[in-house]
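Worked Example 4.2. Consider the chain below.
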Amino acid sequence: MSHKRIPKRKIAFAGGGAAAVVAAAILLPQANASQDGSDASPAPAPKTLSALSAGDLASRIAERLGPAFAGAYYDKDKQQVTVNVVGDDNDARAEAARAGAVVRSVKNSTAQLKSAATTLRQQASIPGTAWAVDPRTNQIQVTADRTVTGDKWDRIESTVRSLGADTARIKKSAGEFKTVAAGGDAIFGGGARCSLGFNVVDGNGAPGFLTAGHCGVAADEWSDAAGGAPVGTVQQATFPGDGDFAFVSYDDAATEAPSTVDTGDGQIVEITGAAEATVGQAVIRMGSTTGLNDGSVTGLDATVNYAEGTVTGLIQTDVCAEPGDSGGPLFTADGSAIGLTSGGSGDCTVGGETFFQPVTTALAAVGAQIGDGAAGNDGGAAGNGEGGGEVGNDGGAVGDDGGAVGDGDGAAGNDGGGGAPGHDGGAPGHDGGAPGHDGGAPGHGEGTVGYGEGIIENG
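Applying the procedure from the previous section yields the following structure tokens:
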């Protein structure tokens, strides 16, 4: 096995193909007329922001507004962040507008939506269901897959109805919620195939990588080829429960493990740090089965009830995924690590819902860092001062003072659980590898466990 350093070439992406988020109407407070009767001062114009800066701005506004803050989302076309303010709190609305956000009044507070999620967890934790906060509608979006029928459907529908039409809504998915590991190529362990997420270093500077937790509980050792010698050993894995992530250390401490993602055709994206997701943000996913696909973040703090157990605190997107993509990286075009592929429904022909483990949470749990450990496009510090410190468009750490946009203070559904999934022998129908993937994913050559021309050769 040879060890090569991946060259540091970068790729620029055109605009994402997912539907753009339509910004809400701007609801700004009525400015007070001056004492001499002249016209009121015009309301400040919303700032133009990158998705990362928008997340930082929203978290700062959330800290300032307290209970009046009810989530936020990003309009990637207008490059503006919309902040939800509960009721007609003019002071809170004015504060958010001065900070540079588009402001709208909503009915449900963050606390009310968290309470609704708790009710769902207690009364309707049914395999094949999922829910997430959608700040664009100020509701909990509940999804039931095709396996939820009969009494199970009646139960989830009744629970959603009891929450009220203004608080929660339900939709049916044509697919089936499941983790997306399978027997095949990329990284292999115990008959299952997954995808490497992001290379990291642990607290001692030793190299390793992140992947899905349901991959980590399927096998203790992982190889770069079916039946090949192990190249990494699982050190920590969480699934189901409070996430779906695993840390795998490279057995050879001299392994070169740059923080890059190979996107095919010899091109790479250099990953500079980890960042929180923002609803409406354009994201890209890479997987060993389906390659490169893009879309948008559609929900945060998602709870998914897989057959193996309940997983909380995930990111919901409209990016497709298929078996073998598990653990693969979700990232932005400018090089921020966002998530690790967990599971979902549908495929890359018909689409569907897909869920991702936040990278920031996984890194904190395993004590590792990615890239230089910082998030932010150009390294510029965000304004930290209270009462009007501006957030720069090109810099600043994301979520330093408030966490992910609209996250509140905890994931819903944490008391779910269940045993580790039965991965013995790999997912049904995938014995021996997915068709056309013998010897490595197409176009991925001799990559970093399925990623290009770098670290671990894939034959």
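Residues 1-39, 374-459 have pLDDT under 50 and may be disordered. Residues 216 and 237 are 5 Å apart (CA to CA). Compare this with Example 4.1 before moving on.
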